[in-house]
Fold this protein.
Amino acid sequence: MSDAAIAVKEKKTGINKKGVPLYAGFHKYFETTDKTDPIKCVGRVNRVHGLLIESRGPQAVIGEICKIEIPSFNKKTIMAEVVGLHAETVQLMSYEETDGLEIGCRVIASGSRLEVGVTPKLLGRVLDPLGKPLDNKGGIETADKYPAMASPPNPVNRRRISERLCTGVRAIDGMLAIGRGQRIGIFSGSGVGKSTLLGMIARNTNADVNVVALIGERGRELNDFIAKDLGPDGLARSVIVVTPSNSPPLSRLRGAYVATAIAEYFRDQGLDVMLLFDSITRFARAQREIGLASGEPSATRGYPPSMFDSMPKLLERCGTSEKGTITGIYTVLVDGDDLDEPVADTVRGILDGHIVLSRNLARHYHYPAIDVLDSISRLASTVSGPQTQKAAGLLRRHLAVYAEAEDLINVGAYKEGSNLQIDQAISKREALENFLTQTVEDRAPLADTLKTMAEISGIEIPAEEMETPPVKEAKINLADSGDDEYYDEDDSGQIIPADPEAAASVPEAVNPDAAAVSAAAVPEAGTVTEASVFSEAAAAPSMDDIDLPLIDL
Ligand SMILES: Nc1ncnc2c1ncn2[C@@H]1O[C@H](COP(=O)(O)OP(=O)(O)OP(=O)(O)O)[C@@H](O)[C@H]1O
Ligand SMILES: [Mg+2]
């Protein structure tokens, strides 16, 4: 365990590696009070106009999170974000439904921007767009936070993409090889098989960690994705962030940023991460709704300039960094099967490749309906060996020649022997069809894919071009967030000193953590009493839970 990791653990538990309490266990309360502004300013809602909530005050900055108290409906509190400022008017948008909101509701600034708690324990969990668990498997304790909106890595420090990432889909691994850290889009009209293909990749990929962002899609698809596509093994190395289509546009937008921040965290651990994003079009549409609601003009087909600005900011965060990689696979719903519509065109220009699904192939039950000739992976030649490229090139030519001559062949106007290339294309046709089609359950190992390609093309592919790097499982062991010799977890997930003698030597009165571990009754979460402030083991109480003086502006 590195010194830095030990320091984090010590800070979290208040116990050093020898089991001795730090600052008599009060360090975390000092930290909380340091970070807290004890006097909170509040504003009051004075206008609600479509998605936009306007309030007089509080003093806040763009992107700051505010709480809005709704006294009707059981004193509900909703989270909102500052999206605009105009003199003393603060413009906000809510992450949640705004039922019950009325003129005069209090708006309290939090002083912080959207952050997501990050830990290896996120693996196997389903989160909402703010990074909170949705799966009833309990809270996720962590002191580490990543900002949802971050800058991409410095381009100078990005590692060059050189390793192949296997997807287990023959048409992709064989004809459109993807590199670790590449960003690629799956483009098609609705119902052609984007989500199904994404699911196949999630299950079969050899990435270390999957981060799945289901943004603005059908709520029904979540459980299908978990049960059918990921399965228990796939889920154990995946984090899912879900924002269904009925959620407010800001939460769809922020879900995309939160998922990307989680992928960045795992990349910073030196892992190869796969970010599976369904769909970037819903993200663009959410940006359009927000832009238009806050008064932006519409530029192209109703999309405001902010959509074209936000797209590269999100997509550029994927890719390689000094430490690890994020391979981004984004589905793009193409309006009216028109690949030149604004979202598709913008995304295609930013990404390092596009996989186009064809409705015509889907109609012929050719699944996955990948139109190899219209698709391109800009890094295929970098990540695959020379013989593999040669074989893929030859198969492409067979496909292209057949496509050109197809009409003649179908009406019987082509006579065998008139053109050698067409003859070859016809003779390879059936084998190529079988190679490019695959059932959803079928997993194609890279070596098998390349062997079949070698057989069809007649080009020998050496064994070294078939090798794949192993998955780094050791680093993502769910049961333990580190190779920890000083700390253990009890049944409830609390961190306790590994050495019982050292723990026993820590007096309970000065060590609130140890006191809480040994206490029979743990106070109910969220109830903050004088006693519980000093006995809650996992974290210092949030100042949000304590009534502070509120000053109206
Ligand atoms: N590999 C496949 N094998 C068999 N059927 C498939 C396959 N892929 C897609 N389908 C069929 O196509 C239907 C639609 O697939 P899917 O939901 O993946 O499309 P989509 O492009 O994500 O649609 P939308 O744009 O509406 O989200 C599926 O319900 C299934 O019937
Ligand atoms: Mg879909």
Remarks:
- Confidence is low (pLDDT under 50) at residues 473-489, 493-543.
- Residues 386-410 form the longest helix (25 residues).
